[in-house]
Amino acid sequence: MADVILEGRDLKKYYPVTKGLLKRIIGWVRAVDGISFTIERGKTLSLVGESGAGKTTTAKAVLLLEKLTSGTILFEGKDVYRFSKSQLKTEYRPRVQSVQQNPWSSMNPRMRVRDIIAEPLVVNTKRTKGQIRSRVLELLDQVGLSPNQADYYPHEFSGGQRQRIAVARALALNPSLVVLDEPVSALDVSIRAQIMNLLKDLQDQYNLSYLVIAHNLATVRFMSHSVAIMYLGEIVEYGEAEELFERPLHPYTRALISASMLTLPEDEDKGVEPIILSGEMPSPLNPPPGCRFHTRCPDVQDICSKEVPEVRVIGQQRIKCHVYAEQ
Amino acid sequence: MLSIMPNIEDKTRPKISGLSRRAHIMRSLTCIVPLTILSLLVLTAIFAPWLAPHDPIKVSMTERRLPPVFMEGGSTKYILGTDHLGRDVLSRAIYGARISLSVSLLVIAITASVGTILGIAAGYIGGRTEAFLMRFTDISMSFPPLVLAMLLSVILGPGYITVVLALSVLGWAPYARLIRGEALRIRNSDFVSQARVSGASPMRIMIKHIFPNVINPLIIVMTMAVGFMILAEAGLSFLGIGIPPPDPSWGSMVADGRGDIDRAWWITTFPGILIGMVVMSGNFFGDWLRDKMDPRLRQL
Amino acid sequence: MSDILLQVENLCTSFFTRAGEFKAIDGVSFYVREGETFGLVGESACGKTVTGLSILRLLPEPAGRIIGGKIILDGTNLIELSKKEMRAYRGKMISMILQDPMTSLNPVYTVGNQIGESVRLHQGLRDDMVEDEVISALRLLRIPAPEIRIRDYPFQMSGGMRQRVVGSIAMSCRPRLLIADEPTTALDATIQAQYIALFKDIQKQTDVAIIFITHDFGVIAQMCHRVAVMYAGKIVETAATSTIFKAPKHPYTAALINSVPHLDRKDDRLYSIEGQPPSLLNLPPGCRFAPRCHDVQEVCHQQQPPTVEISDGHSVSCWGVK
């Protein structure tokens, strides 16, 4: 069996919707509704989906910023929710770090870069000031910044440089898993490539595992070893990245890929019609019955609105769709 | 390679403003002038016994309501004239600086500290702590301050401590409310959740991440409060529950001279000017300080 | 050519700040034909948004000022118009969809009211006629049941619907030129695909010319007939969309296109342009891309390259291109 670093089993996160003074619960927002995934050591899993799909909630659950309604998170085979406070502080927190989407808001504007990168070290280790200082400089060098930039404030850097600082902070404690929440979507095109190459190099160098949250499929293909496509709190298709991009099965995956393709006007004249979905993602407060995608699906059948599709394994992929029922 | 290029297409950065060279000079003046005025006043307060030409409480019934030196009938003995009891206005103003400034600074220090601590705690911890603290704040704000001040002066007797207490006991509530709102906003910001991922304790987050980011609004309110506190002290003195006579404060000087405003305008006007100067200096200096303390605005 | 609707010549716009003069755009020239979609693509702070705002004369005053050039719309130089005349042009002749359409609706007025405001302002219609205009504007953007929707408040609509309402406001007076500044950036992929299809449809119906400002080459490929690539306040290359993608001549254009990861194959490593754009306060004397360019020559650092038309409709500013 592969070396699994983190496994999520049947994760659910429901937010109560309350009404009135007495906070009577009138319904539940099913932000994440029964998803399972595994992340292997040194590999990247990407959660892909549109806003409201539940991917950020999943990432927050892994970072223990949100408490799940139900489900188990296993870190190296151990149940994270059964860790004691001190175990969390020594065995989990320092080893699971994150890089956030917006480099403009992810840093305290009143702290110098030196202190921003040093914070995880100050909080979690008993290193001396000198040791921390030299570690910070080492980290700056690793992410391609120069040591004399350590005393500047975050606002004095461009977006790409700030994202490098965020990466340095995430690496400070030598983590095993880094959660990357849309790590490049706030950056300019030419800077994105720099950061993505950097993340890949660091992965190879330190055998890091990544959980990437993304909506841009091209980014995902470059970064990932496996991919989970999410829609309305569920994983609709899950598999090895190359396989999934070469042979997308779920109609939603195919629509997503089509929408992200570079289609030149003359390609269209040659008959490469983009798949355009109608409507918008329904509210997770009242997900449609049956298959949740049936309201927008181009291949919708009668059964789709009545029965919830089961997860089927086709080749390498796990897929949740009635179209593949007979196979 | 540092780029200080203003990213015009980036909403998250502060808007650049078109400031000319003249505006630039004006801005540094908003620091120098108020700071000079405030420091001079503080120095005056400290060295009052050496600076004042006369005893501020010495009554001289033969020299009542003498005009200032530049008016007909004025003399160099009393540069700013005398009041209705023949006391030297200049000396009283100099000694008054002691009481007025120290009362207002002390009250601001107490109320701002208490309010900030409670506000940050309420905003960051949330839940029942917040509910309790905020109801407590609401009750404090709905209590009539004058009634409380009278009550205190009955219990403790009028005096310096009473004035400071009366103004402090209720004065922290607006700070708590303001800071709680700010803390609530910052609690949900990305950098705070990043700190939590790093394993920072709630105490560290409150001190290192939330407090430095609430300083701006805090300073604005504190500088505004300087003037307000001087006026509040004057109000209490006027009602006889403030600093008891004959000790001078600017507020009580204005109140005392109120009846003579048509005959001897100088009794009220000079302390009035001083109050105005302190209030304005406080506001300008606070403005400048806020810009200075925000690293994002520092180089613009 | 007679079908040219907008001609921008040597446009220069600067921002005057305490730190000095930022040359946000410096000598930008391009034209837009009737009924075509023209893309302005570039990274943040390259001047693409400022170009759009300059054409509308909506620069944040007094810091931003047009300091030179011509903007000729259908024979009229917009720079010479008075503020009042310009107001009449805005909305009626040119209109704009802003970067964040979600916040450009006022939450306290109904949708009908907000669209009607612009109709009333420019066409001086009676109230009953205004309503007809509003409904037809909503219908143009394919909003179902416009007669009912007209009384809705923005919060009652979904994100995609609000986006369409913003489009209706921009199109309500049937402008001949529409400037769209990153209207799709905040949208999810499938919604973006819908929106792009909608724009194309509107263009077919009304023959409006669109200037599409974006940083996303994917959107450019799907939307635009011709494209101008901007870098540090200058246009470095202008060509038909397929030429830009298949035979880019400027090293910056080529590098940008190469650095976009592929969806149809696995990249082992992404092509990346090292460094970052120069500060607009302190621009290099020669070509602005020279410090990051792979094919840099001696002359690049000393003199700005001229803009050369290398084939019909394809012009490049680069010393390496003859």
Question: Mind explaining what this structure looks like?
Answer:
The complex is a heterotrimer of chains A (327), B (300) and C (322). With 327 residues, chain A is an alpha/beta fold. Chain A has one domain: P-loop containing nucleotide triphosphate hydrolases (Rossmann fold, 3-Layer(aba) Sandwich), CATH 3.40.50.300. In chain A, 31% of the residues lie in helices and 25% in strands. Chain A has helices at 55-62, 85-92, 113-124, 129-142, 159-171, 189-206, 217-223, 241-246, 251-260, 265-269, and strands at residues 4-19, 24-40, 44-48, 70-75, 78-79, 96-99, 177-181, 209-214, 226-231, 234-240, 311-314, 317-320. An eight-stranded mixed beta sheet of chain A has the order 6-7-8-3-9-10-12-11, with helices on both faces. Chain A starts with a strand and ends in a 7-residue tail after the last strand. Chain B is built from eleven helices and no strands. The longest helix of chain B is centred in the middle third of the chain and has 37 residues, at 89-125. Chain B is mostly helical and 300 residues long. Chain B has a single domain, classed as Orthogonal Bundle (MetI-like fold). Chain B is 69% helix and 0% strand. By secondary structure, chain C is α/β, with parallel strands linked by helices. Chain C folds into two domains: 4-93 and 175-317, Rossmann fold; 107-174, no CATH class. The longest helix of chain C is centred in the middle third of the chain and has 18 residues, at 189-206. The radius of gyration of chain C is 21 Å and the shape is globular. The mean pLDDT of chain C is 86. Chain A binds chain C through residues 50-51, 158-161, 188-194, 196-197, 200, 215-219, 221-222, 242, 245, 255-266, 274-278, 280-281, 296, and chain C through 43-44, 158-160, 188-194, 197, 215-218, 221-222, 225, 241-242, 245, 255-256, 259-264, 266-267, 269-274, 276.
Please tally the helical runs of chain C, counting DSSP H or I stretches of 4 or more residues. 10
Helix content of chain C: 25-40%
Report the radius of gyration of chain B as a whole number of Å.
23 Å
Largest interface: A-C, 45 and 40 residues
Number of helices of chain B: 11
Strand content of chain C: 25-35%
The succession of helices and strands of chain C, N to C, reads EEEHEEHEHHHHEHEHEEHHEE
CATH architecture of the largest domain in chain C: 3-Layer(aba) Sandwich
Number of strands of chain C: 12
Specify the CATH homologous superfamily of the largest domain in chain C: P-loop containing nucleotide triphosphate hydrolases
- Poorly predicted regions of chain C: none
The rough form of chain C would be described as globular
